[in-house]
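haha ok so turns out i had the wrong file open the whole time. this is the CORRECT one, sorry everyone. sequence first:
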Amino acid sequence: MTFRTLLLRYSLFAVLATVANLGAQRVVFAIISDDALIPALLVGTGVGLVLKYILDKRWIFYDLGQGVIDHSRKFSAYTAMGILTTAIFWGTEAGFWLIWRTDLMRELGAVLGLTVGYIVKFNLDRRFVFTDSALTIGEAR
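then structure:
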């Protein structure tokens, strides 16, 4: 895969996961209340994590492993790698919320935190999760 293709695809998947994450957060806020930051963060993160794993596994790392054991091992490692990146995301989103107390700034913080987090996450996933990946950057597929 060329670097450009990888960048475009990974960026698109990050945007999709971000929209899913923020959409799920909005649902939680609508159901519970505007003071539901922690439940909203948890639900949004879960939705974004599962969607991004599915997309990354197949379309970024070309990982075709199957079976419960393979999926469990990789999803567990993928989630573990996401702990640091989730801290970046949550910290930025919560910080923007605490400073400005507006939904717009909270979501801007979320987008900034997710952007930085996804860059870090790609490198962690490539090195520690999808170690048997068929991903080759620079070659046409």
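The radius of gyration is 16 Å.
again sry for the mixup
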